[in-house]
Amino acid sequence: MGQWLWDSMEGSGEFIIKGPRLGAEIWKAFGPLFPMDSPTRWWPAFQSESQQLRWGDVKDLVLDPESSLELPGAPVQVGPLVHVVQRLLGDGGCPWDRQQTSQSLLPYLLDESYEAAEALVAQDFESFQGELGDVLLQIIFQSALLQDAGLSIVVGREVEKLIRRHPHVFGDEVIEQALDVQEQWDRIKDQEKHEESRSSWVYPSLVMAKRESKRGVDPKSAVFQAVRDFMQVYIANTSGTLEEILADAAWAIADVGRQHHLDVEWALWRRLVSQSPPSQVSYRENS
Predict the structure, then answer these.
(1) Could you read off the pLDDT of 209-261 as tens digits, one per residue?
(2) Plot region of 128 (φ>0 → left; ψ -120 to 50 → alpha; else → beta)
(3) Ranges of CATH 1.10.287.1080 domains, the chain
């Protein structure tokens, strides 16, 4: 595989592959990452001017030792990021990444989404850009782990859905008011076939725990009973408000988890899933 080098002399921020390299080898590594008609540039040997090519023509190219080829995607675009994830998950990649599963990555997907929201609420847009990149990484990582699927299918389904739900843009309908667009979106979504029930969890773990307890489902463990009994006695003998007591108790548990390098939200989620078989709680696509 060609070595990726920063084109630091021109400062373009684009990825450059140096020869010698066969176009067929470049295409095998990067071909699916970019549209066939994406423009790319080729610098023949000993020539200062580049030639523009279609990405689909690269497979017939031959790079000699003094020539170079620009990949269509800049580092901030999705193609190179897909390649990096593939390298991490491939032979000789990262041991930690290679042992992950869709389930083990779930807390990172949630955490990165929360961190992006935090930066946005704080109006720290520079940090927000970085956090969006972290969310994008989780999407690409999860897509790479899907069996018989991948990012192209994930993106393809989303594109089809957006076109289907915007007939006023991609069809003949005429809509000018945002409220009418929302009503149309909801109407089209209701007409689409939803997935069958297939998940045991769609809420933050504390909300889910409350719902399970309301159904009479509680852990049958000594620690659950002891902590609940202690809290009842403490509440009965303390003048603070119930909201403050419960908030500080939850915070204390989160801090104990931190001291032991454990995410309590994730730990409680795993406990809830082990209590409730997937068939007990329904999930329907809300996107």
Answers:
(1) 888 888 888 888 999 999 999 999 999 998 889 999 999 999 999 999 999 98
(2) alpha
(3) 80-191
Which among 56, 205, 76, 81 has a CA at the least distance from the CA of 143?
A: 81
Whether pTM exceeds 0.90: no
Provide CB contacts within 8 A for 254, sequence distance 6+. Answer: 264, 265
- The helix (run of H) or strand (run of E) holding residue 17 is strand 15-18
**Beta-ladder partners of 42:** 51, 69
63 DSSP β-pair partners = 21
Distance CA 81, CA 136 (A): 9
Q: Give pLDDT tens digits for 180-210.
A: 998 998 889 888 866 554 555 567 888 888 8
**Entry field: residues in the chain:** 287
The CATH number that domain 80-191 falls under is: 1.10.287.1080
